[in-house]
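All the exercises in this workshop are built on plain-text protein records. Sequence and backbone structure share a record, each on its own labelled line. The structure tokens are whole numbers drawn from a learned vocabulary of backbone shapes. The record below serves as our worked example for the rest of this section.
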Amino acid sequence: MPPSNLLNQYGENLKTWKRLRFDLIPVDLTKTDLNGSDLSGFNFCRVDLSAANMQHVKLIWATLSKANLNGVNLKSSDLYRASLTDANLQRADLSRANLSRTHALGTNFQGAILTGACLEDWNINSSTNLDEVVCDYIYLKDERQERRPREGYFKPGEFTALFQQLLDTIDLIFQDGIDWQALFQSFQDLRSQYADQDLSIQAIEKKRGGAIVVRVEVAEGADKAAIESSAKELYEIKLTLLEQRYRAELKAKDGQIVAYQEQSANLMKITEMLAASPPMSEGNKYDLRGAQFGGGYVAGNVEGNQYGGVINNYGSNAEDITRLLTALRDQAQTFPTDQKDDANDTLDDLERDLADEQPDQGRIGRRLKRLVALGAAIGTIASGAAAVSGDVSTFTGNVIELTQQLGIPIEQVQLPPSGTP
């Protein structure tokens, strides 16, 4: 085996060592001083680098699988796309290191320091050990962007809890938009199929470019690949069935074209208002952990005309609350007569509640839940009319957003699962 000071022997000409066969690379590099070296692409598989000085080292695309990096100093080093699979980084100092897109499956970070590290798209799994990690804050984007926490510092154990929670989730990515009715119907079927996994929707995020991510929480140790595959399959089945139903019902109602055109005109007005509203910001999300809404979804912003009731209890949210109430009234006008009257009465009661000096949050929550139930009922009886179905979905989504603006817990407005007494 070559001596452990092989790097010193080659001096600055590290490229020579990189060209050597792997079996000539020293296995023991303990306490070696590699400060500032460019080791991009090097293969350190199973090499003992414990207690080495690797500050400011470039390890881009390097292979460190099963390497011993116990106590190594990796401050400000660049490990972009490096492989750390099954490596030992106990008590390693990775402060301000770049771990973007690093593969760290089964990696042992116990007691490591990660303060100021960039963890953009790093790849970890349930075998990755984050116990006792020392971390005040991290960045989720390169160039010190997206600091977490945004202000202050992690409390002891918070970093580990944050990433452990992410390990027990599945991200369903929709690049071309979502049929929300198909999504929630298929999710109900998914929960029934995996009744022992306690599945719930943790969050819905809109990404730059229009992609939507639905984050599903699963039980620890769940077969996430199987659940993700089933979720996509069930969604496609529901989507196909809904499209077939819409086509059949529209064909059967050719005699009602005039009524549909009037409803379409109403829908176009709402669409124009949507287009005129500010876009949803990157990272805008609603926490829907376990929520179930009959045919509802998270809608975009809808601009509306302000009207009589002045909402004085919600500070900077008052304008958004008034806008959403206006939009809900507009959308309710396309409902069947009985449901339209019911929606208007409920909105009247809600406005009076909001105008109280000390609004009753419980009563407001019940009003909102009533509106969600109305949306679910209309979705069932609307006979598949495309315009009405679109208004119902937007109506339900605006109720969800209004709930968020009012600070009402989402659990207070969710409907019980179908079949629950």
